[in-house]
Each structure stands twice: as structure tokens, then as C-alpha cells.
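Example record used in the benchmark description.
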Amino acid sequence: MSGGEITLDKVVDAYERMAPPVRVTPILPVARSSAEVGRERLFLKAEHLQVTGSYKARAAFHILRSFDDEGRRRGIVMSSSGNFAQAFAYAGPVVGSPVAIVMPGYTADVKVQSTRDYGAQVVICPTFADRDPTVERVAEEQGMLALHSFEHPEVPIGHSGIGLEILEQVPDVETVLIPISSGGLAAGIAVAIKENRPDVEVLGVQPEGGNAAYLSWQAGEVRTIENWHSMADALSGRRPGELPFRYLQRYLDDILLVSEEAIAESVRTILFRTKTLAEPGGATAAAAFLDGQVDNSRVTVAIASGGNIQPSVLDMILAGTAGG
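Model output (C-alpha cells):
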């Protein structure tokens, strides 16, 4: 594996060695009304159409393929609220490596079941704070490698190819919107874009009820929030990782907050205008554009990071009872 720095050379090398199951996802134009069709300024980078339904397959394959034979035999244990869990659960059997996932008790049922269906062992822990200690316990008991994704440099590097694809697919891009939880996705994409095109505005987006990276950005240091409340369960980090936060400080232009109402409306707009389904966390970045928080005249790409939504949440969003 590479060292602790995230550099453009590592970004390019990882992308050139991308695993065959990982998809180069399409760019989807989003018209806010029929009058905008053909004149769209918002475009989705459709990672919700990635294998396992989220961008996290990129880093999962990148990390597992980086292990030597002994590391693959031992396998990994890591924590996830759902999308990384499914990505590693899928990638493990493909590369021949056992995977155990520690999932908090609040994780959406559909993500827990899907992780099991892909073949991973699932260990439920009571709270967010219990995740890392449980990972260490399982690693010791089962002889597995403990992966702490918040601070692992290969996580942003694995995801960073999304930024390279955006620059190739939308060469006139002016603004890129990225959802933030622990910060690995935003850090990797920001490095890929800013090191190639420093003129492109790169903005992070968080739910108002899960604003740890936003508060950290304002304070200039990592902050932890005690309470987290949002339908965007994929963005459930109570703090950004120390490592990715350094890159957010260096490369992001700003971090924005969006309301639950804006997230719900973004899910509906993406569904009805692109005929694809993004989960609330996957629709959070686009919500900043649709809610008028960025300049709507600029060519903007929003990362649709995932599409694994709890059916009951989708029912409430479509009924207009979510986000109120």
C-alpha cells in the first residue's frame, strides 16, 4: 500500500489499476422543469448506479487488491453504516478475502440484509461510539486485519477516480458538489480535481442534522457532534477523519448545509427528472444546487453517491411526509 499522503500520482495510478467490476458511471443531466430540458446546468455523477449501489465499491476493491496473499487470507473487519459494508461484502468473495462488518444498531435494515446477502459476517454494535472498539475485538478474536476507514489513506485514493472521470466527462465543469460524512470521498475527489483544474470550485455538502465536517471547517480543527439526526443515514459520521480533514482544508472552497426538506425534494427531483433513484445521502449534494445555495448559472456536477434506500423512507419522501 502507498504511504500516508494523497498525491495526484497515487490518484492516477489507482485509477489506471481500477478493478474490472468497478463501473465508470454516467453523467445524468437534471432539468428542474420541462423548460430546462436541453439547457441543464446541473449534472449528476451517477455513483448510485455503481456496483452495490454506491461509490464505495471503488475503495473496497482498491484496498483488498492491495493486500499481499497473507493479508487476503486473513481478511478484514471494518465498521460501516451500510454502503461501505455492502461494497466490502461484495468485493471480498471476488478477490478471495473474508470480510466482517461492524454495523451500528441504527443502520437501515435493507443495508444490513444486503450486506449479509453479499456474504459478509455482520456484527451489530449498540452505538456509533462502540464501532471502533468492536472492530478491534473482532480483529483479535478472528485474526483479521482491522481497517479504520476514517483515517486510512487508501480510502480517499480509491474514491478519487470519480474526480478524474468528471473532468473527462464534463470538461466545461465549473462547480463540483460532494456529500461529506467522514470526508474520504470529498478529500479524494478534491485532490483529483484541484490538482488538475484549480479553477473548478469544489464544495462539500452536509445535512443540517449531521454537520460535523461543517463545524470542523468553521473551527479549523476536527470537531465531534454528540447528536446526529437526518434521513441521510449514509452520511452519519459524528466527526470527519483527521487525515481527510487535512485535505478538505487544503482543497475545498467551502462546506454547505442543506435541510431535510431540501434533501427530500432532491430525492424526488432526481427520481422524476432522471428516472433513477438516489438515497437521501446520495441526493444531498444535488440538494445544494436545487435549493439555490450555489450559482445555478454555472455548470455543476453533483455526486449522487448512493441509491440504497430504506423502502419506508422512500414511501415517506414520495408522500411528502419526510423532511417536514
